[in-house]
Amino acid sequence: MKDTTTVYFSLGSNLGKRLFHLQKAVIMLGDFLGPVTALSPVYETPAWGFEGEPFFNACIAVETTKSPEEVLKTIVHIETLLGRVRGQESGYVSRTIDIDI
């Protein structure tokens, strides 16, 4: 049996259906990586470093057997599925979803 690791994620969304994007990200992280073992309340913060709509944010813990590389590939994949477009931004910009480790 593989060892499990607890990975903590910070989630944010300030475009479109912010709460929906957070909820979908939590579900997808659980489906792709392993069980979600902790979930913070959703809270709202102002955009930082640029002019933009406020963010909805949450933090979660996931138990996973995946490698760090697999975790990173998975979060980039989830961000893409939820409408995040990379490579066009220079600095901080609005986004449908942002998943940080």
Q: Number of folding domains?
A: 1
What is the helix fraction of residues, given as a range?
Answer: 25-40%
Specify the structural class.
Answer: alpha+beta
- CATH fold group: Alpha-Beta Plaits
In short:
By secondary structure, the chain is an alpha+beta fold. The chain is built from two helices and five strands.
Describe this structure in words.
The protein has 101 residues and is of the alpha+beta class. The protein has a single domain (7-100), classed as Alpha-Beta Plaits, CATH 3.30.70. It contains two helices and five strands; from the N terminus they run E-H-E-E-E-H-E. Strands 1, 2, 3, 4 and 5 form a five-stranded antiparallel beta sheet that branches. Helix 1 (18-33) runs antiparallel to helix 2 (68-81). The protein is globular. The two termini are 24 Å apart. The mean pLDDT is 95.
Which secondary structure elements does this structure contain, and how are they paired or packed?
Layout lengths: L4 E9 L4 H16 L2 E4 L3 E3 L9 E10 L3 H14 L16 E3 L1
Antiparallel strand pairs: 1-4, 1-5, 2-4, 3-4
Helix pairs in contact: 1-2
Short key terms for the protein model shown above:
2 helices, 101 residues, Alpha-Beta Plaits, five-stranded antiparallel beta sheet, globular
